[in-house]
Each structure stands twice: as structure tokens, then as C-alpha cells.
Design a protein that fits this description.
Blueprint lengths: L2 E6 L6 H11 L2 E6 L22 H11 L6 E4 L5 H11 L6 H8 L1 H10 L7 E4 L16 E4 L9 E4 L2 H18 L3 H4 L1 E5 L4 E10 L2 E9 L13 E4 L5 H18 L4 E10 L2 E8 L12 H4 L3 H11 L11 E6 L6 E7 L1 H5 L4 E6 L6 E2 L10 E7 L2 H13 L2 E5 L9 H4 L1
Parallel strand pairs: 1-2, 1-3
Antiparallel strand pairs: 4-7, 5-6, 5-7, 8-9, 8-11, 10-13, 11-12, 13-17, 14-16, 14-18, 15-17
Helix pairs in contact: 1-10, 2-3, 3-4
Amino acid sequence: MKRVLLLLPTTGYRNNDFLAAAGKLGVEIVAAANYCHQLAPSWGLSPIMALHFDRPVQAADTVLREMKGIPDAVLAVDDSGVELAAMLAERLGLPGNPAQAVRRVRDKLAFRRLLREREFRCPGFHHLPSGEDPRKLLPELQLPVVVKARRLSASRGVIRADDPEALLRAVNWVRAIQTRADRDAEELGLIIEDFIPGREYALEGRLQRGELTTLALFDKPDPLDGPYFEETLYITPSRLPQPLQGRIHEEVARACGAAGLVTGPVHAEVRVNDQGIWILEVAARSIGGLCGRALVHLLGMSLEELMLRQAVAGSVPSLSVTGGAAGVMMIPIPRRGIYRGVEGLAAAQSVPGVTGVAITAEPGQIVAPPPDGASYLGFIFSQAASPAAAETALRIAHRRLHFDIRPEYPATVAPAAERR
């Protein structure tokens, strides 16, 4: 039986999907996680269940010391564990991407520098070290700009600024977000880059011996112009002309090669306008959240099964790609507060073309939209004969859902006698 060391984040959306795929394939999972290192011992958990994914050298040492036997592959469920997975694969002599390449594409500043060096079309950018006043960069900036944390994902810590005052507010806000989310915030600083107008698209693919296969190209029908960049709809197949889709594939493949990525999943984000194709991101992971479920009927298997097959066998069988269109909505969070529940679930599920609605927020959970938040209320999935029909089904279903989100601190009015 093949064994896979699987890095399971404690807050991961896809843990169960990976475990189900492993059960279907008869793959033994050796679980590693990032539970609290102080609580894990009292719960009877082994040291590899309390790893610091963001301290990959230390975490790799723990895994190699505690794990019994060498697995056939190492996989990370999401972005938080990809650098550790690459480092472990290197040290165990297993197939995988070079850790340096994974580290480079996770760091927005390092990746921008690589793109500029290799003459890709990418936004102009500046590094703002921690503590430095962003106003000193104003003579060099072309407003509007986008302020970004360097290693966060899911639009967290990303804010557009249109004028100097907005820039200062955005920098202070993103610095606070990065400080809470990344223990290396002080040494990282921020990146400030030109805002690139245009429509955004996402390419989901896989690399095998350096060759990129596009599994799906997603349209993002909702404009992502800021000031925050909450992603909502992904629709595939793309409605772009085929020649342009081919050029997106070529640019993403070229960026993977420049970064040194050679195997496994790839998720890339691009913008397209009259000037051409702009590379925004290339990640050595698959699409986040539960969005991969939108591809099951197109691929003939789950995305997690595809990843496990490639990890343990080095290749995958020919995909039985079917026709039609599919879509997913990452249900947006309208405001910060405490999620209490949802009404209209049955009505949303009954919309023609909707194949499922998964509410992932838990009652009592504090939720927040970007740029602060890093989660969703849930996901809506659709299948239809055309991309337009798949998109329409998602929008109708979303309108039927009504979420109860209450203030974190309910307002109280003091009695009149106390206000005197």
C-alpha cells in the first residue's frame, strides 16, 4: 500500500476531501497537522500533529525525527504547508518541487522580482520595509496602487489606494493584518504595486516533468477593481477566445519554468487587458477552499484524487473530460460580525443547475470580509450547458440565501438616569 504524508491544516476546508480520495484509492495517509504545540501533548497527539508550518526547517526536523519509515510522497492540503512539503520531499529524496522555488512563488516580492528579471508583463512594484513612511515613495508611484502583504492568500491584506491619504490608511491597515497573520511580518515589510485594470482569470493546472497541463481556465465575471478584492464567482470553461486562452497557458507555463516549478498542482491568477496578459500569481498548490469540487464532473474524478494519483504514481491516466460548464461561488461575507445561521438553504439548492450548497461557517464564528478575513460563509456549485447558465444559477441561488450576522459587541443604551 502506498503511503502519503499529508499536511493537514487544522482549519483546512479540504481535509475530508483528501481523506476520502485516499480511501477510494487505497492510499495510507500519514497525517501531520499544525495543532497548538502546547495543547497537543495533553490531547495525546504525537509531535508531528503540532508542527509550525510557517517554520519549515524546524517542522521538517520534527517530522524526520518522529516519523516511522519513509512515505511514497508528501502533499500539502493548502498554501500554508507547501513550503514544508517541498522541504520534506527534498530531504527524503522524493519527487517534488524544489523548496527554493516554492518559497519564491509564495513571496509576492520575490516573485515580482523574478517576473521583472525574466521580462514578463507584471505590475510595477516597490518594497516598503517595516516602519518606513510610504509617503517617501509617492514621487515614484503611479496612483492608483495596490498595497499587499507578502505571503498571505485569499485576498487577505490586499487594498487599493487611489490617493496619498488612502495609501497611508492602506499601509497601516495591511501592516496590522500582516502582523496578526505572519510571525515574520517585521522582516517582510509590504509590497506596493501598480493597479492593473482588466478582467481577471484563474488557471488550474498540473505540472509533470516541467510540462504544464491546463485542467481548467476560470472566468471571474465580477470585476475585481478594489478597494478590496473579494473573490466570488469562478466559471469554466472560459468565454475568452481560444487563441487568447492558449496564450494564457503559455505565459503561465513560462512563469512556472522561470520559477523552477516542475511537478504537481499549479494555481495561477492573471489579468487581461488591451496591453496583454499580466501574471499576478503562480502558486504551487491547487485552487483553495472547496472550489475544486466544481471540476469533478469535468475531470471524471476529484481534484484531490488527481493530486494523490500523481503523487504516488508520478503520472495520471488520461482524463475523461466531459462537456458542459461548471461554476462555484465563494459566498461573500457582507460585513464583520458573529455568524448565527442562514435561511433559504432549501430554496437555493432547488435552483435549476445548482448541484450543491455547502455552508462552512459555524454558528458563533466571527466572520469578516477581505482585507481582514481569510474564510467564506460557504460555497455554491453549479453545472449547466453553458458558462452563462452556470453563472446565472449561482447568482439566483445566492439571492435566496439570507445570513444572520450580528455585531460582535451589541450596542446598549444606558438608562436615562445614568446619562445625566
